[in-house]
Design a protein that fits this description.
The structure is a homodimer of 348-residue chains. In chain A, the strands form three sheets. Chain A has a six-stranded parallel beta sheet with strand order 2-1-3-4-5-11, sandwiched between helices. The longest helix of chain A is centred in the first third of the chain and has 16 residues. The termini of chain A are far apart. Chain A has 14 helices and twelve strands. Chain A is α/β, with parallel strands linked by helices and 348 residues long. The interface between A and B is large, with 69 and 68 residues. The structure holds a DNA duplex (30 and 30 nucleotides).
Chain lengths: 348, 348
DNA sequence: ACGTTTGGGCCAAACGATTGGGTAGAGTGA
DNA sequence: TCACTCTACCCAATCGTTTGGCCCAAACGT
C-alpha cells in the first residue's frame, strides 16, 4: 500500500489549452476564445465546425482551465473569504451553508476561518485571506467596538457583513430589533410583567438590537425593565446558564427570561431547572434563532426564527453586486415568532 | 458612499518580486531565492548585506508572494479540500475547526463543502475541488455502500478520511466500537435488560461501529438485543425522534435507548416525553459525541465523548504525511463515557 | 476593377514566481 | 603566473491563460 511518491500521473496528462490546440490544429488563443463561452467572442474566433471540433476535444480530454493561470492573468481569483466567530455555532454554520452554496452557484469558492470574536485573530485571518488574493470578504463577526472593518473599507477591499451590522457598511442581517419586539409582544400577551433579558455580548449588533427591540416594546407598554434585569452574556449554553442563574436570584424573581440566542436560552433552562423551578410553568423562557433542536427539547423552546440560510445566500449576492461595482444597500430579513411549551401564561 | 468601480488601488501597488528587485538593484531571481528562506539557498544566492537589504525592502513593502504565480510554477497550491455531510452538524463543524486550524499551521488553506451524504453531490464537489487543483482531500462523508473514495484512490489523488472509515484507506476516527461497548457497560451496570438502539445511517461507519460494540457487549452479557429493537435512523433530532417513538411502541417497552449521536438522542428524548414518560426515570437515554449542550439540557444527557477537534487535527497531519509520500496508518482515538441524569437504574 | 468589410483565425506580450544553468571577478594553492 | 574554486550574482525558460492586435482571403458594394 505504498503511495506513489510523486503525483505524475495526476498532473502529467492534465489537458491544457495547448494540448487541445495541437489536437485541433489551431492556435491556443482560438481555443481559449471558443471555450470561454461569451458567445459573441467564441463565434467571432472560429467557424462553426472548428468550434465543434474544439468543444469535442475539450470534452473528451475533460479539460478544466487552470485557475492559477487564469487568476494570474486576470487578477481575479473567484475566491471569497468568510470570517465567522466560530463554525461550531450552528447559527453561523447555517449561514455559512447558505454562503457556500450560493457562492458555488456563482462559480466562486470560499475560504472560511474562525476568529473567536478576537480582534487580533480577525485581523490575522483577514490578512491571510488577502494574501491568498480573495476577490472579496464576508464578515460574520463584525464588532461594534473594534471597528476593524473600517480599515478594510478604507483599503478599498470589497466586502459585506452578515448576521451583524456595524456602521453603514453593506450588511445582511435579520431584523433583530423587530424580532426583539415580537418576543416582548408575546410575553406581554401572556401577562408577564417581571422579565429578565440575557442580552448577549455588548459588541454584537444581534444581541444589542434584539434586547433593544424587546426593552422598547416593554417600555411602550408602560413596563420599564430595570437595568439589573438585563445582563450581558456569552452566546453559548454556559453563558446563558450563568447569566440566567444570576437573574433568577434577584429579590423579585422574573416570571420570564428572554435570551437573545437559543443556546443561551437552553443554558437558561438549565439554570431554571437547577433553581428547582419548571420551565414553562414557573418561568417562561424564550430564545432566538429557532435552531432545529429548539422544538425537540424536553420542553420545546419558544423562539424567533431568523432566516439564517437565506442571510448567507443574500450576503453573497450582495457581495456580487459590490464586486460588480454597484453599490449595495443593507438588507434586513424578517423574523417570525414560534410559540412552544417553554412560554406560558404568567403564574402569579 | 459609491464604491470605486475598479480596485486599482488595491492591486496597483502590490509589491512583486520585480518591484523589490528594482528597488534593491538586483535580479528578481536573487530576490526569490533570498525570500524563499531555505537558508542554504538564500545565503548562496546573495551576500549578507544584499540579503538584509532585500529583506528590509520586502518588509517595508509588505510583500506577500502571489499564490497563483507560485502555484502555476510549482504545480502545488497549498490548498486542501474538505468534504462533510453538513457543516451545520456540530460534530462535523467541530472536526472542521480542528482541520482548519491545523491546516493554517502548516500554511495550507482549506475549502469545505457540504455533500448531504448524497453520492452525486460528493462526486460533484470532489470534482470542483480538483478543478481548483487542491493538493489533497479530506473526506468526512465516506460511505461504505457507494465507494467513491476508491475511485479517488485509483486516480492517485492524495486523501485521508476523517470521522468515518471505509476500506483500508488512511482514516482518523474515534474508536466507535469501543465507545459502543462503553455505553453497553454503563447500561448493563444500571440493570437495563430491555434496550433499544437508534443506530444511525447504515452506510456510516460511525453508527455501525457504535451499534456493533454495543450489541456485542450485550451479547457477551447473555442479553442478545432482538433485531426489532435496533433501528436505523437519520443522525439529526428529527430522525432520533421518529425512530425513538417507533422503538417505544413495541409490546415490551425498552427501559433504555442508545442513540449513536447526541442529536438523535435529543430527538429520542422528545419522543420519550411525548409518550408521557420521563427521561432518566422511566426511560434512560444515552447519546454519543458529547456536544457542549448535552450537559446543559433540562435533563443532562449521558453520552460518550469523542475527540472531535482532535480528529480534525490529526487528519490534517495524516494528510501531510501522505502528501510527503510517506504512508499513513489509520488512527482511532479513544472515547470516554460521561454519565449524567438521562441514564439511571432500571425501574422495573 | 478596386476599395472595404468581415469571417476566421494567428501572434505575442503579459501575469508573478521558480529554478537549472551560466559567468565575472576575487581569492587560493602550486 | 596559471588553473581552479568560490562568491555573488544574472539569464532565460517555463507554468497555462487571456487579450489587444494583426493578417489573409473571400465576398461585397459601386
Amino acid at each position: 500500500m505504498e503511495h506513489p511518491p510523486d503525483r505524475t500521473n495526476q498532473t502529467s496528462h492534465r489537458a491544457t489549452l495547448r494540448t487541445i490546440a495541437e489536437r485541433a490544429g489551431v492556435h491556443v488563443s482560438t481555443v481559449s476564445r471558443v471555450l470561454n463561452g461569451s458567445e459573441s467572442e467564441g463565434s467571432r474566433a472560429a467557424g462553426a465546425s472548428t468550434i465543434a471540433r474544439i468543444r469535442d476535444i475539450a470534452g473528451a480530454l475533460d479539460y478544466t482551465p487552470d485557475p492559477n493561470a487564469t487568476s494570474l492573468r486576470t487578477q481575479r481569483t473567484h475566491l471569497l473569504g468568510v470570517l465567522v466567530p466560530r463554525l461550531s455555532d450552528i447559527v453561523l454554520a447555517t449561514i455559512y451553508e447558505g454562503v457556500e452554496e450560493t457562492a458555488a452557484l456563482h462559480r466562486y469558492y470560499t475560504f472560511v476561518a474562525n476568529t473567536r470574536d478576537d480582534p487580533a485573530e480577525q485581523r490575522a485571518r483577514t490578512e491571510m485571506m488577502l494574501s491568498r488574493r480573495v476577490d472579496g470578504l464576508i464578515f460574520g463577526d463584525a464588532r461594534s467596538d473594534v471597528r476593524y472593518v473600517d480599515d478594510v473599507a478604507a483599503r478599498g477591499i470589497p466586502f459585506v457583513l452578515v448576521s451583524r451590522h456595524v456602521g453603514d457598511h453593506p450588511a445582511v442581517t435579520c431584523d433583530d430589533y423587530a424580532g426583539g419586539r415580537l418576543v416582548a409582544e408575546h410575553l406581554l400577551a401572556l401577562g408577564h410583567e417581571r422579565v429578565g433579558v440575557i442580552a448577549g455580548e455588548p459588541y454584537a449588533s444581534t444581541g444589542v438590537d434584539r434586547s433593544a427591540g424587546f426593552l422598547d416594546r416593554y417600555r411602550e407598554a408602560g413596563l420599564e425593565v430595570p437595568p439589573d434585569r438585563v445582563a450581558h452574556s456569552r452566546f453559548d449554553t454556559a453563558g446563558g446558564h450563568e447569566t440566567g442563574a444570576r437573574l433568577l436570584t434577584g429579590r423579585e424573581r422574573p416570571t420570564a427570561l428572554f435570551a437573545v440566542n437559543d443556546f443561551a436560552a437552553i443554558g437558561a433552562m438549565g439554570a431554571v431547572r437547577e433553581s428547582g423551578l419548571r420551565v414553562g410553568k414557573d418561568v417562561s423562557v424564550v430564545g432566538f434563532n429557532d435552531v432545529p433542536l429548539a422544538r425537540e427539547l424536553p420542553v420545546p423552546l419558544t423562539t424567533v426564527r431568523s432566516p439564517m440560510h437565506k442571510m448567507g445566500q443574500r450576503s453573497v449576492e450582495l457581495l456580487m453586486q459590490v464586486l460588480a461595482g454597484q453599490d449595495a444597500a443593507p438588507e434586513r430579513l424578517v423574523p417570525s415568532l414560534h410559540a412552544r411549551a417553554s412560554s406560558a401564561r404568567a403564574a402569579d
